[in-house]
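Hi V.,

You were right to ask for the full record rather than a summary. Here it is.
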Amino acid sequence: MINLIIDDKNIQVEEGKTIINAALENGIDVPSLCYLKECSNVGKCGVCAVEIEGKNNLALACLTKVEEGMVVRTNTEKTQERVKMRVASLLDKHEFKCGLCPRRENCEFLKLVIKSKAKANIPFVVADKTEYVDERSKSIVIDRAKCVLCGRCVAACKTKTGTGNIEIAGKGSERKVQAIEDKCFDETNCLLCGQCVAVCPVGALKEKSHIERVKEA
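Predicted structure:
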């Protein structure tokens, strides 16, 4: 077992665990958007920065393994500034309109924005949604104007269903989440199980509503 201190709390965890594992298992909150324990999705958002005593640079809690005697702080001025900077950079590419969003009541990103008091450097304005929204599937809608490229959907599809029907394609500013080979989900071996929708922290993936069709029928 490894003994360490996180936010002045003495804890003991198994060797090989990451700081974020150790913290969450002991009731210590570490901000993150991409971390998904059961799917090993880590290192994508850069939000889980922590300060380790004796180290000059901040470390990502999801990638850093615990060590004997380690002293970790998750809520210092330095870590708060890093989180604020990362959240602000994500806001630059996120349509921050919460009113009609299906995740407005439990959006993980909104909670981070409020907690960090981050603001977009250049507000992201979408004039034409058609280039961002993929509604080809009968069941799943992708709204890339909301996507923060956290990779959770990709990890969940691969690990929980074994199908791997979602990918992040492209490079640089052209990176986007899509069904494999940019097909419609219905043209792949997608199970339409909703695992990708369930793990999305921002509502970029959602189930397509057929309420109006039912009413008409």
